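Consider this one:
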Amino acid sequence: MEKLIFFIFLVLPIIFAEAHHVRGEGFTKLFVFGDSYVDTGNSGRQANSWKKPYGITFPGKPAGRFSDGRVFTDYIASWMGIRSPIPYRWRKMGNRVEGFGMNFAYGGTGVFDTLVKAPNMTAQINLFQQVLEYKLYTKRDLNSSIALVSLAGNDYFAYLAGNGTIEFDIFGASDIRSGYSSNSPLMLRDGDDEV
């Protein structure tokens, strides 16, 4: 259990590794991968995040965030001095897509397939790669961007729901790290070096 807690607290501070950038100065784009802690509207309208009470405090009505208010993406974008990036799902709805980056996160997902049928981490990174192939973002955009990665307990819940037990050797700590790290070089190779 201590290893699990250590792993969770080890992953969260990664975003703040570039501490010399005061208030996110110099960063113009935010690319988001992960789960409900950072999803700003990718989950379909059938998801609970599109129903009350979600979104009542911010933005004032249900908008796809799994929160009554802001999610982690909103806080990081605010710290950077930009608006929250557009959810990937909305990229073709006439908005200026390239504005502040893009959010690929889907509530309920993880590194592996979970109980929610939505893109896992590998699929989200593949979507990012497709967006890069469309040349919506320049090398300069990527060099001034931050990648926010959120991994909560969805992989563990899926494991336990699949006849796993509480007594396991951090089932996924090594598997999740290997799944995550096998995707990381792809993001770095594409120029998003602010992981």
Remarks:
- The two ends are 26 Å apart (CA to CA).
- The longest helix spans residues 171-189.
- Strands lie at 29-33, 86-87, 101-103, 145-149.
